[in-house]
Amino acid sequence: MFKKTVLIMVFSLLVVTGCSLLGGGGLKDGDIVEADLSQGINIEALLPNAETVLLVAGIAVEDDWPALEFELKAGDGVSLFVEAEDIDPVMVVLDEQDNVLTIGDDWDEELDAFVSLNSVGDGVRVIVFDISGDDGTFLLEVGSPESYQWFLEVDEEYEFFILEDKENDQWSDLLEDVSDLYRDSWETCVVLPLEITGEKWVKIAVESDVDCIMAILLVDDDELQYIDFDDDTDGVNPVFSSTLVSGNYMVIVDSYSGSEDVEFYLTVEELDIDEMTVDIVIVNQIDEWFGGVFSEAAFVMSYWPEAGDYYGILPEERALVFEFDIEESGSYIFEVECSDDTKMAIVDSEGVMIDYNDDNPDGGLDPMLILQLSPGYYSAIVVPYGDNFESEVNFRYSIDAVFERELGTVPTEELFRMSSNLYTSMMFESGNTYEIFAESEDIDLTLTVVDREGIEYFSDDDGGDFNPYLVIECNRANSGLWEIDLEAYSGEVLNGEVYFVVREEQSTRREDSARIAL
Q: In whole angstroms, what is the distance from residue 190 CA to residue 158 CA?
């Protein structure tokens, strides 16, 4: 493995207009080159459409950045090491058809770049540039091949380093525009490309002694599409577990604080959905106990892909699910009995968690919740607290009290302090399109509207800044009394000022998208 070295011999000094060739058909094992990016040419002249091509490989560039190109001698494999004092070098190795063979950025806990090839075909070349598009000198050393992998592959584990002095400004700028990530700076992030062929259940996990975050993005032509963001699913470690369709993805990892060097391990694993399926118990009677048992490979994520996005339930915990239908609005009691310690989450038909409980608030290890719910289909997801999962689990729900909805008026525009969920009904007229939204700096709100036909509309953060926003067309079929539920996300404590509006649609509204043009 290349380390920081004192250069004893410079084989050749190459300062040309972008394409550098040594005698004998290109660089080979043992060659050392000194070069200066101030003598380079625009990277797009060396690689057409560089911004789009390199994005898929995990490198964000601008087409006018200076770069130098070096041809490699065809034949046996080689490794390439770039050392620099004033720049953060990056290498991209291309074949004759401009396909990216591999890329090299940071190496051996330093900003210096490294790649290795098992063999070199005809016309293979390497392009060198700075990660921020700056000028500067560098040394390129060619050696014998070593073990190396940059592109992620399924069912592999990798070791990487997050460097405190990394200045990945280009990726930071791109990620700041993805509103779903809710993070200001990604300067030190490590960007790792992952290609998925065919639809797969995939688990991507980070393991580190330092708190890390992870984002998953799909590269769709020249745009980034948000897939997921995770922080502390497994302790302080982020985990993604869900289905991915065919495409090119970016796995982006950064330390939570960005203030220290961090070693982390990343694993990519394909999961077998047939082995993860949970048992589902249909609860068709109120105030009656129903029982079931955990099966060994029944992972909660097979039933609830959003597990891990909410507090309390981890994606790979075993689970038993009780499904039930709430027929009238009211306050309901949900109880679990088991000889082992268990946890429980109540989720709606869209997979949104209503609330979570571990230990009974009155004492004891059995979970219990009292919730106000609207009519609809719900699930109680029960998970063992520890490794014991062989005991029978019993579940029941019973009504605590029926509540009457308030009858509101349209239009409504009010500012009030919210200390409990708001349940109201309003009359909507055919022929109008209505905006229904809420804004709060204190509470992360969700909004559910059920029209007269029974069609449910749900919004979480569509208004930006954790605020819900809906636009619904009212026609002859669905006009009349609509039910409106304004609730706290994931059952968080309610105590804050809320601006709530129901009105005919205005001509302009905030634009909010998880896709950004590059």
A: 12
